[in-house]
Structures are given as structure tokens and as C-alpha cells.
Design brief:
The protein has eleven helices and five strands. It is mostly helical. The protein folds into two domains: 76 residues, no CATH class; 115 residues, Rossmann fold, CATH 3.40.50. The strands form two sheets. It has a three-stranded parallel sheet, with helices on one face. Helix 4 packs across helix 5.
Length: 204
Amino acid sequence: MMQVLGPFAGVEADVERIRPFMQKGFPWHVPERINAPMRTAQDWWNALLPLFEEAFVSCKLSQNQARDLAAMVRFVYTDIADWRLYEDTKEVLSDLLEGGWKHAILSNHVPELPSLVEGLGLGSLIACIVNSADTGFEKPHPHAFRAALRALGDPHEVWMIGDSVDADVLGAEAVGLRAILVRGEDVRARRRAQGLRDVRKFLG
């Protein structure tokens, strides 16, 4: 949002002005609600346009300006040039893959997630991607995890690794999976790892 606003000199915008609008209105903010599966990417983004417009109007832009900028958010957000991996990501995923593990991504994300994963050079390391934009189930909804298990062929041993204690850790444990909170601290998570390298101590 701030990148989209960048060219407008004199606009009353800062992260704290925009932040409240990013904490509501997205599908994952109401995970108990089941959304229509397999919507087109355009339909998914169209549902968020009013939220983006509202945020831009709060920055003292006109309604017409806000509408034009709202349409740009999708293309700025999905520009792979602005995405970065944690420095341990490829190393750990590659090592675990060689050790016989299979990796899947279960995420509450935008429809373009598969192309982002590919653009970041992770395509060969990931067996499948289960994205809420496709399934209609947002973590921690139990069906989100069950969809991932089905996509993986219901393997015997499964670990969920994520940075959200509510969506990833508690959501996974609610359906009987073991989970590790990574890059976060929360006493509700029984297993915590500072980075991906540290998850290996739990995997045996």
C-alpha cells in the first residue's frame, strides 16, 4: 500500500495510518467462514478493492484517485522483485528433501502464491501448494489442514511449521498434527524454533 502511494507527493500517509485497514476485511480475518472455492484471481482481488479504496481515502485522496490506486495494489504486491527468502530457507528445505521429507505449503494467501513460490526458486523443493484462495478454507479452519493432508496422500508422519501460533500451531494441533512455531515466541506453542535450521532438532 505504501509503495502504491509513493508517487503522490504531499499525501498524508504513513504505515500506522494504513495498518488498521490491513487488519480487517481479508478472508483470513474470518477463518470460520468458508469462502467459495476456485474463484478466479480477479474475483478474489475484486472483493478487497473497497478495503483498499477506504485506506487510500483515509490518506486524503479523492474517491477517484483511491479507486485507481486500489486497482494497482495487486500488481505491486505480486511483483516478485520485491520478495525475499529467509537466508536459511533453501538450505533447510534441500537438506530435508534429501533426507526423505516431502514439503507442502499450506497458506492463507493471494491467488498468485504458486507463481511467487516459483519465482523465488522454490518450485523444485515443494511437492504441492494448498492455498486458501483456491480451497476457500482459511487456517486455522480444520478443513484447511485436511485439504493439505489429502493433497499429500495422507502421509503417516506430518509436521506443521509456521510463524503464527493461532493459524499454524494451534490450528494444526486441533486436528491432531504436531506443530512448530518458527521465528516467534508464544508460550502456547510447545515447540519453538528461532529459524528453520532449528526445526531439525524436532524431526529426529
